[in-house]
């Protein structure tokens, strides 16, 4: 997906049946805050007034999956219930501000120099630009705790690498296009690694709140020294 500044903020959604238990509501096909705001609004409307048979809603960048109990509802009644909630007045909710610490030392940021060269900037300029981004959580996916953030400034946006690299450490701060992510597991990635964070994004031992973020939260990054990073990792 890519950003599209011309995307309409009032687009009419399309409905796609998913199996016999869900409807996918699509507002567009781009990473755009105005489109995502519609996703968040529908999610909030469903939480405020769930329809009979509603099971859960799973928001994404430009769509939301609405799951229902097929013994109680079907695609037709679910689409009708969704249409009603699209026009409902929903109190505006403001997500929390979450802070994520990041160290940009070269051995923790193996792609920082490459991003700087491709962007025509110095590594320090890339760091400053990354820190200045207006980030918000658009969705979870791919792996536990993988919160996809939109808001990477255009000056440092880079396409994904041609092939993923294996064994990338948990806590890596990654960018690709307009997206940013802090990895929670050691996994392959084709995104650009520009730092590493000691901030705990995934708490597998917590039953009440395993993830730091909620969809709709704002995120800001704070630069820390190597000494602070090492101390946090040893704690």
From TrEMBL:
TM regions (residue ranges): none
InterPro entries documented for this protein: CT_C_D, Cyclophilin-like_dom_sf, PxpB
Organism encoding this protein: Rhizobium laguerreae
SMART domains on file: AHS1
Domain (Carboxyltransferase): residue spans on this chain: 13-213
Protein origin, superkingdom: Bacteria
UniProtKB keywords: ATP-binding, Hydrolase, Nucleotide-binding
Designated name of the protein: Inhibitor of KinA
